[in-house]
Amino acid sequence: MTNFIGARREQFVCAVFVCLLVVLLLLPVVSCERHANRIVVGSKNFTEQLILGELFAQIIEARTHLPVERRFYLAGTFICQQAILAGRIDIYPEYTGTALTAVLKEKPSGDKQDVYRRVQQGYETRFGLSVGAPLGFDDTFAMVIRGDDARRLNIKTLSQAAAFTPKWRAGFGYEFMERPDGYKGLVASYGLRFAEAPRIMDLGLITRALKDHQVDIIAGNNTDGLIPALDFFVLEDDHHYFPPYEAVAIMRGEMLKSHPEVGAALGELAGAISDDDMRRLNYAVDGQHRDATEVVREFLRQRKLIN
After folding, report:
1. Same-domain pairing of 149 and 134
2. Is residue 131 domain-shared with residue 155, that is, in the same domain?
3. Residue 254 belongs to domain spanning
4. What pTM was computed for the model?
5. 151 with 194, same domain?
6. What is the largest CA-CA distance in the chain?
7. What is the pLDDT of residue 35?
8. pLDDT score of 225 more than 50
9. 55-64 in b/e burial notation, b at 16+ Cβ within 10 A?
């Protein structure tokens, strides 16, 4: 009797395992079929990505009348890339420099057109993904210090800052510490040394830490709306270490075949957002604590992109 029960239990466990395996294998397919008649827009987990995701969603809704599902705050680059490859999202905003170095694992370049071309070709041939036209702004990494320090020390560039960094504490996000175009290459290029090992911090806390003198230099973003609001100063990357990070839409090729009108709708955003535009949008959400949906709708109406 015991052997019989054991055999039955084994059969049951095997059956459950097979079922789970089938579900896992079919998950991307099921996901694609489930949203065949709607568009799923994703984004990473910071304010600018939320705004860009909402921009994509609203212009698609206005131009195509297709229902749009928003799946925002999907952590970082790796999660968004895996989600679009699995068909769980159809579109998400990305940056050309990130796509080139973190996803394609290619060497960076300072030429915007070269980087865009390599990303466009690489994503098409390797992943079957389409890269939209640049939106108009470059969200490059920005090494940020307090404005008071910049004026007191009379420094404007990273090369000049290298003389003072041995007394500074640095605060960086985890991704910046790990990515090939991040911390290691930066300190090698400029010969930077710090008073202690950099603090690895959540991106949502890093600007506050600089303001409160917990750290003295951070890796921020060129389009961060809080930079002027908090009297921060962006040190010039005079070695041109960072590649361009033009914002683009990454789109699933199969989705575009079924709904080419989505690509046409997003094409209307090409060149439509300047660096200053993106700073203002970011500040409206981060600094003024306005709802991102309202901020985006207002921007699109001002540009006469939606009614």
Report:
1. no
2. no
3. 35-138+244-302
4. 0.80
5. yes
6. 86
7. 61
8. yes
9. bbbbbbbbbb
